[in-house]
Amino acid sequence: MGRYLLTRSLILLASLLAASLVVFLAIEVVPGDPARTMLGMNATPETVAALNAQLGLNMPGWQRYLHWIAGFATGDMGMSYTYRVPVAGLIAERLKLSLPLTAIALVLTTAIALPAGLIAAAGRGRATDTAVMGIAQIGIAVPNFWFAMILVLVLALKLHLFPAGGFPGWSHPAAAFQALVLPAVALALPQGAILARVLRSALIETMGQDYIRTARARGRSRTGALVAHALRNALIPVLTILGMQFAVLLAGAIVIENVFALPGLGRLIFQALSQRDLIVVESAVMLLVVAVIAVSFVTDIAYALVDPRLRRPA
């Protein structure tokens, strides 16, 4: 187990370093001068050069990369060019909305996927299976921002059941939760559809095992064996994907937060891009990358604990 853990840890570090380099280079090639954007088009070259020196933007790219990644590793993400406050505090403030939104979306994803997968697996080859999987395919194919706009049109503008956008703050918990329902549903629908298909496949595969046939021979109905025996073992790959979906939902909130005008991490990234606040964009995107890679690492370790075969050297 120690060797496996060391190998996965080295892969984790290599992945983080490679991702940080890609993020830095991708942000650096975005056209536009942050200092010029902040000072306006009428600023003199001398003023622009002075601000670039103050922000450290006159240093060579490799020096700026090393300075940024060293600060990120220690929790010091630098100062925002636009807001002139620590980037770490700015991101932490926005995560107070993005993390609850992601958590609600994950709960809704599970609530959608479990009954859908069970119904489809129980009625394999029948009309219910075809209908559920057809709806799931539509859920996978249609972008979540389109779902978001439909939800706003129907449930917010037509029926007035939920607010169309904005966030009242956590000082009003009921109103805050209500403001997050539609964004969470828009995030959860595509991921729930994916998870439902995975659960259906895992259940069908599990139903072919010997112990399921034994349970059926003892008088268990197909549905009873499905729920009482197959579901528990079929949840192993489902839980793996569910863990990965938390990071996917957190990253996917970038678009949804802008659709609903929510002051979360996604909207911060969008605003920082438009203002050429590179240090905020780099740090926020890198944080999302770390979340995805860290969840993958934890999933690998959990799998190795469950299945000893994964710990054996090839």
Automatic annotation (TrEMBL):
GO cellular component, one term: plasma membrane
ABC transmembrane type-1 domain boundaries: 95-299
Ranges that cross the membrane: 103-123, 135-157, 177-199, 234-256, 284-306
Location relative to the cell: Cell membrane
Domain of life where this protein originates: Bacteria
Pfam families referenced in this protein's UniProt entry, alphabetically: BPD_transp_1 (PF00528), BPD_transp_1_N (PF19300)
Keywords: Cell membrane, Membrane, Transmembrane, Transmembrane helix, Transport
Family annotation (PROSITE patterns): ABC_TM1
Membrane protein topology class: Multi-pass membrane protein
Keyword ATP-binding: no
SUPFAM superfamilies given in the database record: MetI-like
Keyword Membrane: yes
Any one GO molecular function term: dipeptide transmembrane transporter activity
Xref: Gene3D superfamilies: MetI-like (1.10.3720.10)
Similarity section: Belongs to the binding-protein-dependent transport system permease family.
Protein name: Peptide ABC transporter
Naturally occurring in which organism (per UniProt): Paenirhodobacter enshiensis
